[in-house]
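User: Working on a comparison across species. This one is Reticulon-like protein from Ambrosia artemisiifolia. Can you predict its structure so I can line it up against the others?
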Amino acid sequence: MAHTVHDALGGAAVADILLWRNSYGSGVVLIGSSVLWLLFERGGYNVLAFVANNILLLVVILFFWAKSASLLNRPLPPIPELDISEESVLIAADEMHVLINRVFSVAHEIAIDGNIKTLISVVSSLWLISYIGSFFNFITLIYVGVLLSLSVPFLYEKFQAQVDEKLFAVHKIARSISAKVDIILKMMPSIHKQKTQ
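Assistant: Here's the predicted structure for Reticulon-like protein from Ambrosia artemisiifolia:
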């Protein structure tokens, strides 16, 4: 179990950025995401056009750099070997494998086992995502996510004792509600039992 917020966030460079310990990196992420949000959301610029125009500009610069380098006896552009290692592909495949199996497990619990508790949690989660998503478009939702990730861990670390106290109270209430819901669900006949009869 992690003892600090920094450890809970992985204790590496990402944790330093999220907790504003690397103020330069945090500032770059905040300013960069704000500029991109203003460009795409308020400026009306298209993401696909932005990516295509930047790649086009990069390709043209590299082409003229290579041509001028051969004419002026200068070094060629320093382009690294772009090669994805087999190990990184296997790691990504393992992570996807776990995620896909978890989704299939939840689907099995709902469709085959008739687990009403899982059904209610999945339906409520998807409804909540849909409800929140109806207020924003995708770019704004990503921007809000970046802002929350740069503020919530920082504020939690500052006020951890007070937040933990409130979260403990909410957790107790949620556990009591969950126990009552479990009692109600146990009184309902199971879908699986109905199929076997």
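For your comparison, note: Residues 5-93+137-196 form one domain.

User: Helpful, thanks.
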